[in-house]
Write a structure and sequence with these properties.
The structure holds 3 protein chains of 3 kinds.
Chain A lengths: L8 E12 L2 E12 L3 E5 L6 H9 L6 E6 L2 E2 L5 H7 L1 E4 L11 H12 L18 H10 L15 H14 L4 E5 L7 H18 L2 E5 L3 H7 L2 E6 L2 E6 L1 H6 L1 H8 L2
Parallel strand pairs in A: 3-8, 3-9, 6-7, 7-8
Antiparallel strand pairs in A: 1-2, 1-4, 4-5, 9-10
Helix pairs in contact in A: 3-4, 3-5, 4-5
Chain B lengths: L1 H9 L12 H20 L2 H26 L8 H16 L5 H23 L4 H21 L1 H4 L22 H21 L2 H11 L1 H6 L4 H27 L9 H14 L6 H17 L6 H15 L3 H14 L9 H4 L12
Helix pairs in contact in B: 3-8, 3-11, 3-12, 3-13, 4-5, 4-11, 5-11, 8-11, 9-11, 12-13, 12-15, 13-14
Chain C lengths: L1 H34 L6 H16 L6 H30 L4 H23 L15 E4 L2 E4 H23 L1 H11 L1 H6 L4 H27 L5 H16 L4 H18 L3 H5 L3 H13 L10
Antiparallel strand pairs in C: 1-2
The chains are: A alpha/beta, B mainly alpha, C mainly alpha.
C-alpha cells in the first residue's frame, strides 16, 4: 500500500462488514481515500462495490466496522446526515426527480443544502425564483443549461447523469461517491463525461471515489485504485501497481 | 436574467411558460370572487347552504391532496383529523363554554396535535403500510369517540352546536356563508403558497424519489411529518367549519365513508393540480344532489361508476385531462404523454406550472 | 365452574367467528400475494355470498338440503361475479399506480354494495337456520348453538382443503411461487394473466363461502361489507401479507378476542378499539406482520 506524501485520509473505513442472509456482501473492508484524489473502486460484478457505497452513505446499516469522514465517525448516521457532513453520491441507475424540471431538481438540492425547506419563514415564500442563479450556474457547469426547463424524466440518459452530478454538487460536498458515472454511455461520451467530472473535481478540490467497469476510464483518470473481490479488498495502489498485480490478473482473467 | 428569458423563449415549445399569473387565471378568480360575493343575494337559501357544504369539502379535499398529490402519501384516515377539529370545536363550545369564534379558531390546533402524534408513527411507513396505518388510526379514533360517551356523546354525538347569532347560517343570515368563504379562501391561499415554497418543492421531490431526496440532504421523515401535521390542521379547519354548519357532531365524522370523500373528490378533479380537489368536490356534491337525495341506494353506485370511468379513462382527473388536451394542441407532433395506466407512472410533464 | 363454562362457550364462539373471518381474510391475502392488489371489494363479495345464500335458503326456510345448496351455489355465484370484475376491470389496472388500483377496487365495492341494497333492500334480515342445525347443545352447562358446531366442524375440512390445493396441486404451487416472485413465474412461461384471474376467482369464492356461512349465524345487515373488510384487513396485516398460517392465527385471535371481550365489562366497552389498536401496533412494531415476508 503506497501513500501519497502530504495528503491525509479524508474517508477511512475499518473492518466494514455486511451480510445479506448468508451472503457476505462486504467482508472486512479497510479503505482509505486521500483528500483530493481520484480513487477508483473496481471489481467484477457481485464484488460488493455498490453495497460498500451504500454502507458509506448510511443507506444500509453495517453489521460491523467503522467509517470515519474528516476525522469524525459517520457510520450509523442516517443518509441525510452523512450528506450534510460533506459527502454526495450519484447512483448507478440514474436517480433524479423525474417530474420536476432539471432546474427544480437542482433547486431542491440547494434548498436542502441551505436548510431552506424547513425554515418556517420559507414555508410560504415562492420557490420559483429562490436560489435560481446558483441553480442555473450549476446546470451550466455540467452543460445542462439549455435543458433547464425540461422535466428530468425527459432528459437523455447522459443528461440525467449530468443532472445527478449537478444535484450532488449542489450540496457543496467535499467528497463525491460516483456509482458507475459512465454506465450506459458510448466510449466518446464516457471520456467526455469523465473529463468533465475530473475537471470539476480539480476546480473545487473534491475528493472522488468512483466505481467503474470501463478500464480505459479507470486507468485513464484514477490516481489510485482499489480492487474488490467477493466482499474483500484484493489489491490497492497506483494504477501501474494494480495492473501488474498477479492477484488482479487472476480475478479478472480467471485461472 | 436576460439570458434566462432567452433560454425560456428557446424552450417555449415544450410547455406553457407561466411566469406570474396568466390572464386566464386572474380573470377566472375575479369572476369567481365576484359571483361568490353576491351569491347569497342571487340564489335561493338551499343553494347557499349547498355552497357552504361544498366549501368545507373542498378545503378537506385540498388538505388531503397536500399528502396525496404533492407528497405521494396515500392516507386512508384523513377524516380522523377532520373529526378532531369538529369534536374539538363542539366540546369547547358545549362543555367548556368557550365562545364560538374562539372555538372555531382553536379547534384546528387540536386536530394538528392529533396529527402530530399519529403522524409521528405513520411517516415511518410508506405505501400500503402507511395507508393501512392511517386507516387503523382513523378507526381507533372512531372507536374512542364512539365509546367515550361521557366526553364525546358516544354514538349520539353532541347536538346543538350552532354559531353565534352574528354568524348564523341561512335562513337566519348569510354571515356563516361569508365566514366559510373567507376562511376557505384564506386557507386555500396558504396552501397554495405552501406548495410553491421550498417546502412544497422538497415535498414533491420526496414524492418523486425519496431515496434521492434523502441523498440530497433532506430529512425525509421530518418533512413528511410536517406535511402530515399541516394537512391535519387544515382538515381540522374544514371539520370545525362543518360542525357549526351541521349543528351536531357524531362518530360518522371519522367513519369509513368520510375518509373516502376527500379521496374521491381529489381524484375526480385531478390530484396533480392544485385546484383539482376543489373541482372534484363540486362534482361530487353535484352527483350527490342529483342522485343521492332521490335515490340514496344509488349514490355510491353512481360514484363508483364515475370512479371506474375516471381510473380507466381520465386518471389525471378533470383538470389533468384538460391540461393534457391543451398541451397536445400546443405541440401536436409530440406523442401524447402516456396515461398512468399504460406506463404505470404518474403524471406527464411538469404539472408544477399550475402550482 | 360456571365461569369456566362461559369462557369455554365464548372461546368456541370466537373461534367459529375467526374461521369465517379467516375465509374472508385468506381470500384477501391470496389476491394481494399474487397480484399485489388490495381488494377493497372483498367485503362486498362476502356480502353478496351472504345475500345469495339467504335467497336460496329462503326458498325453503329451515330445509337442510337448501342449506347445503346455498353453501354450494352462493360461493359459485360470488366467484362468477369475481370473474366478471377481474376480467372487465381489474385486468386493466394491474400495471397502474397503486393509488388507482385501490380506487378501482373501492369503486367496485361501492357499486356491488349498492347493487345488493337495491336488489335485496337495506333492512336487516335474519336467516332461518336449517332444522338440523337449530337449537343449542350444552357445553359444561352453558348453551352453545349447534350451528356454530358446524362452522367449527367445517374448519378442519377447509384447512385440509386449502392445504391440499396449495401444496398438492400444480395450480397451488404456481400460486405459491407467484407470491414469492411474480416476474419469475411469468418468465417461466406461465400465463400470468390466467393465473391472476384464477387467483381472484378462488379468493372471491372463499369470501363468498364465508358470507354464506355467516348468514344463518349473524343474519344480514347493509353495513356487513365494510365491517368485515376492516376486520379482514386487520387479520391480514397482523398475520402478515402472504402468509396463510399467519392470517389463520390472526383471524382466530381476533375472533377469540371479540368473543372473550364480551365477558369483561371493561373490555366490552372497548371491543371495537382492540382490532385496530392491534393493527396499528403491529404496523408500528413489525410492519411485515407476525409471519409476513419483509418486502
Amino acid at each position: 500500500m503506497t501513500s501519497v506524501a502530504g495528503r491525509r485520509a479524508l474517508l477511512t473505513c475499518r473492518g466494514l462488514r455486511k451480510a445479506f442472509g448468508g451472503v457476505r456482501a462486504v467482508d472486512g473492508v479497510d479503505l482509505e481515500v486521500l483528500e483530493g484524489e481520484l480513487h477508483a473502486l473496481i471489481g467484477p460484478n457481485g464484488a460488493g462495490k455498490s453495497t460498500l457505497f451504500n454502507l458509506l452513505t448510511g443507506q444500509v446499516r453495517r453489521d460491523k466496522g467503522e467509517v470515519y469522514f474528516d476525522g469524525h465517525r459517520i457510520d450509523g448516521l442516517p443518509p441525510y446526515r452523512v450528506m450534510r457532513r460533506g459527502i454526495a453520491r450519484t447512483f448507478q441507475i440514474t436517480s433524479v426527480f423525474r417530474h420536476l424540471t432539471a432546474l427544480e431538481n437542482v433547486q431542491v438540492s440547494l434548498f436542502a443544502h441551505y436548510q431552506r425547506h424547513l425554515n418556517p419563514a420559507a414555508l410560504l415564500i415562492p420557490a420559483r425564483r429562490s436560489k435560481l442563479k446558483e441553480a442555473m450556474h450549476l446546470l451550466e457547469q455540467v452543460g445542462l443549461a439549455p435543458n433547464a426547463f425540461k422535466p428530468a424524466g425527459a432528459l437523455s440518459h447522459g443528461d440525467q447523469k449530468r443532472l445527478e452530478l449537478a444535484i450532488a454538487l449542489a450540496s457543496q460536498p467535499r467528497m463525491l461517491l460516483l456509482d458507475e458515472p459512465t454506465a450506459g454511455m458510448a466510449p466518446p461520451e464516457r471520456r467526455e463525461t469523465m473529463a468533465l467530472i475530473a475537471r470539476i473535481a480539480r476546480e473545487r478540490g473534491l475528493t472522488l471515489l468512483f466505481t467503474e467497469h470501463d478500464m480505459d476510464v479507470v486507468f485513464g483518470w484514477a490516481e489510485r485504485i482499489t480492487v474488490m473481490h467477493q466482499g474483500k479488498i484484493a489489491a490497492q495502489g497506483r494504477p501501474d501497481e494494480v495492473r501488474a498485480n498477479p492477484e488482479v490478473r487472476r480475478i479478472y482473467l480467471g485461472g | 436574467m436576460a439570458r434566462l428569458a432567452a433560454l425560456r423563449k428557446e424552450v417555449a415549445g415544450w410547455r406553457v411558460p407561466v411566469v406570474g399569473v396568466s390572464a386566464l387565471t386572474a380573470g377566472g378568480w375575479a369572476a369567481f370572487l365576484a359571483i361568490s360575493l353576491i351569491f347569497p343575494y342571487l340564489a335561493p337559501v338551499f343553494w347557499v347552504l349547498f355552497a357552504i357544504d361544498l366549501f368545507t369539502l373542498a378545503l378537506f379535499a385540498l388538505s388531503l391532496n397536500l399528502l396525496l398529490g404533492y407528497g405521494g402519501m396515500v392516507s386512508f384516515g384523513h377524516a380522523a383529523y377532520y373529526a378532531m377539529g369538529a369534536y374539538a370545536a363542539a366540546i369547547l363550545v358545549k362543555r367548556a363554554d368557550v365562545a364560538m369564534p374562539l372555538a372555531l379558531a382553536a379547534a384546528p390546533f387540536f386536530a394538528a396535535a392529533g396529527a402530530a402524534v399519529l403522524g409521528a408513527f405513520a411517516v415511518r411507513l410508506s405505501g400500503i403500510a402507511f395507508a393501512m396505518l392511517t386507516l387503523a388510526f382513523s378507526q381507533v379514533v372512531y372507536a374512542v369517540v364512539f365509546k367515550w360517551t361521557g366526553f364525546t356523546g358516544g354514538d349520539d354525538g353532541i347536538q346543538g352546536v350552532w354559531p353565534i347569532k352574528a354568524l348564523a347560517a341561512p335562513p337566519v343570515s348569510n354571515n356563516y356563508y361569508y365566514l366559510t368563504l373567507g376562511v376557505v379562501l384564506l386557507c386555500t391561499l396558504l396552501l397554495y403558497l405552501l406548495v410553491n415554497s421550498p417546502f412544497g418543492y422538497t415535498l414533491r421531490a420526496i414524492r418523486e424519489n425519496p431515496r434521492r431526496a434523502e441523498m440530497a440532504g433532506v430529512n425525509v421523515r421530518l418533512h413528511q411529518w410536517v406535511a402530515f401535521v399541516i394537512a391535519g390542521f387544515f382538515a381540522g379547519v374544514s371539520g370545525a367549519l362543518f360542525v357549526f354548519f351541521q349543528g351536531s357532531v357524531n362518530p360518522d365524522y371519522t367513519g369509513i365513508f368520510r375518509n373516502a370523500d376527500p379521496l374521491i373528490a381529489a381524484l375526480l378533479g385531478g390530484v396533480h393540480h392544485f385546484l383539482g380537489p376543489a373541482l372534484g368536490a363540486l362534482v361530487y356534491k353535484v352527483i350527490f344532489f342529483y342522485v343521492g337525495r332521490e335515490f340514496p341506494f344509488l349514490f355510491h353506485l353512481v360514484v363508483g361508476a364515475v370512479l371506474v370511468v375516471v381510473v380507466l379513462l381520465f386518471p389525471s382527473g378533470i383538470l389533468g385531462f384538460v391540461q393534457e388536451r391543451r398541451w397536445r394542441s400546443l405541440v401536436p407532433k409530440r406523442k401524447p404523454a402516456a396515461a398512468p395506466i399504460a406506463a404505470g407512472k404518474g403524471q406527464p410533464a411538469s404539472p408544477l406550472d399550475r402550482g | 365452574m360456571e365461569w369456566m363454562a362461559r369462557v369455554a362457550v365464548q372461546l368456541l364462539s370466537g373461534i367459529s367467528i375467526g374461521v369465517i373471518l379467516f375465509l374472508v381474510a385468506s381470500g384477501l391475502s391470496l389476491i394481494f400475494g399474487v397480484s399485489r392488489v388490495i381488494n377493497f371489494a372483498h367485503g362486498a363479495l362476502y356480502m353478496v355470498g351472504a345475500y345469495l345464500a339467504y335467497s336460496v335458503m329462503s326458498q325453503a326456510p329451515g330445509s337442510g338440503p337448501y342449506f347445503w345448496l346455498a353453501l354450494l351455489l352462493a360461493p359459485l355465484g360470488v366467484a362468477l361475479l369475481g370473474l366478471v370484475v377481474e376480467v372487465a376491470f381489474l385486468r386493466r389496472i394491474y400495471r397502474a399506480e397503486p393509488l388507482y388500483q385501490l380506487v378501482m377496487t373501492i369503486a367496485i365495492a361501492f357499486v356491488i354494495g349498492d347493487m345488493v341494497r337495491t336488489v335485496w333492500g337495506a333492512e336487516n334480515r335474519s336467516v332461518t337456520r336449517p332444522d338440523f342445525l337449530t337449537g343449542a347443545v350444552s357445553i359444561l352447562g352453558q348453551p352453545f348453538p349447534v350451528y356454530n358446531l358446524l362452522v367449527l366442524g367445517l374448519a378442519p375440512v377447509v384447512l385440509v382443503g386449502l392445504w391440499w390445493v396449495f401444496y398438492r396441486t400444480r395450480w397451488g404451487m404456481l400460486v405459491r411461487a407467484a407470491t414469492w416472485d411474480r416476474d419469475m413465474v411469468g418468465a417461466l412461461g406461465v400465463n400470468t394473466s390466467h393465473l391472476y384471474t384464477t387467483v381472484f376467482l378462488f379468493g372471491a369464492w372463499l369470501g363468498g363461502l364465508g358470507g354464506a356461512l355467516v348468514a344463518p349465524l349473524q343474519g344480514l345487515a347493509p353495513g356487513m361489507d365494510t365491517s368485515v373488510l376492516l376486520l379482514a384487513f386487520v387479520a391480514v396485516v397482523i398475520g402478515g401479507l402472504g402468509s396463510f398460517f399467519g392470517t389463520l392465527l390472526a383471524a382466530v385471535l381476533l375472533g377469540v378476542a371479540q368473543g372473550l371481550a364480551v365477558l369483561n365489562p371493561l373490555l366490552r366497552r372497548f371491543d371495537i378499539v382492540i382490532p385496530f389498536a392491534l393493527m396499528a401496533l403491529v404496523l408500528i412494531a413489525r410492519p411485515q406482520g407476525l409471519f409476513g415476508q419483509k418486502e
